[in-house]
């Protein structure tokens, strides 16, 4: 073991295996108090030798394949058991983990790794398991000619670094493979779990074992282990004071996985892309005559007019057209960037691989008609009925609750303003903020309830593939989030047609949300890590008996990237949909994202457990969501231009009827959508060299398959 298990343990149990017969093994656990970085081994004479920074090799389960025998085993994943787990249950689980797949096991390596409570199992994997899983996942690796080629187990000797798993696979890939193999454990027949009461301890045939153990209270959690030295090195390169621009994306992908790396790559690309609209916003606001002023509503003829310092018609038009073209160029250029990163990280060929059933999938046991494998089956028509008759109505119900809250906000605002006009006191002035505060609390509470309901609905829909599950769950949350955050703005813009209120509301939402995000994502985590966690860190450094594994277990699990992508999507919506009303939108977003990158990096490295990260080839459904917003921005900006006071004044002076104005706006909208489509068509989603590499990978895969058949 080279990196993973440098975490100390108060007591390390040495598991000595002696073969008494061909089928019987005697397991003897010897407990010795050791230093946190020490290992114990036996020399040729049977004397005890103490070394540092490794676990005792004899305590790992043995492998039967000669090519998988290694002097050092890297600790990758920790299984946290319940405090009252029975030793017989733990031994039974270890035997399942080490058993071969033909005997219903995971073909992994297990270490009892016991502290004083004996409630952990440390897991790794042998070389053959890693290589076979690499082929199953469809990962591309460097061939002997330095090209990226889809890995083939039968052709493994022609790949670079195939004998060194720490060079051949990234840390995130190795840990995900271990987790994937654990999730694939299924009971071969109906049996009882040793040491567990009969009611929750019965495994049905082909039932997922890890999920059953979680429900039975045997397993509390499964998480990957940090490599503290590599994490510290990454942190110094990532969020240190010296590192201002750029991110070590390859190091992030190697340590945290492509899922996390794609998020930070997109955040970095998006932040740099904000520079042109931010510059334009500053020019329109401060350099053009009357830039960035306030629109006022005149009582005469009921027409809204600009002050002398209001934006000119040309300024509105420039900002609106630029936003529409910028959003298109941004998305298309990101696609190219994403495809090049996917090739570099060996995940370009993942989308064409057949995905197995996810751990939570349930159904009647049968033969899969596509693969011929025995697995749970669930009719597609039943899933569609659940989506159409239950999920969609419930999503509509929550959107109706959003409208109800918006209606209550306007009613409350009208009542408070009337009361303030009558009394004019300081108390009534303070009450003017009450409707907004109540509406914010209401939407936040409703959002939290909806997120829980959306997860339960998606689980109940029983999707077979993990990608399908994530896409349906993300789509549900995206619909509600978009409606919950933009319904008020669209209502103000297109129903009330109150541009001054729209500008004020947009500015307050941008500034308020960013201040809140900076406080919760940067200031609070920094204070917690610096002042609340510092005494515990000092105690770990001073106390030689402090268990570093326990320190990792005490960290909260990472909440995922859902909230981070939602935040970026809302930013993109504010900028692309309404920036012509408030040109400084991009400036505020740019300032926010410069600190957002470092704050998110600090959270990943310091405040949460290391997450599992599945290999991905792009951002998935999030990329589609940004593209949809780009098309919606065309309609939004066209109609906002139509509502511009000086555009209306120009139409009135020219004697243009309202019907002709609407027809002209529809014509402009369709022309701009056509321009967006032409731009998207002219800019390929992947560079030519990536396309050539992808076709080469497909061709080599077909050749390798043909050779295997021969």
Textual characterization of the structure:
- By secondary structure, the chain is an alpha+beta fold.
- The protein has two domains: 74-225; 249-378 and 462-704, no CATH class.
- Helix content is 57%, strand content 10%.
- The chain has a four-stranded antiparallel beta sheet. Strands 1-2 form a two-stranded antiparallel ribbon.
- Strand 8 and strand 9 (148-150) form a beta hairpin.
- Helix 9 (275-287) packs antiparallel against helix 19 (585-606), helix 10 packs parallel to helix 22 and helix 11 (380-423) runs parallel beside helix 14 (466-496).
- The longest helix has 44 residues, at 380-423.
Summed up:
With 710 residues, the protein is an alpha+beta fold.
Task: List the main descriptive attributes of the protein structure presented here.
Anoctamin_TM, transmembrane, 710 residues, single chain, disordered N terminus, 16 strands, 4-stranded antiparallel sheet
How many individual β-strands? 16
Tally the helices: 23
Low-confidence spans: 1-54, 291-313, 539-546
Domain count = 2
C-alpha-based Rg, rounded? 30 Å
Summed over residues and divided by their number, the pLDDT gives a mean of: 79
Straight-line N-to-C gap: 39 Å
Biggest sheet strand line-up: 6-7-5-12
Strand content: 5-15%
Overall helicity: 55-70%
Characterize the biggest β-sheet.
4 strands, antiparallel
- Structural class estimated from helices and strands: alpha+beta
Tertiary shape: globular
Main location: membrane
Domain Anoctamin transmembrane: 252-696
InterPro entries: Anoctamin, Anoctamin_TM
GO molecular function: chloride channel activity
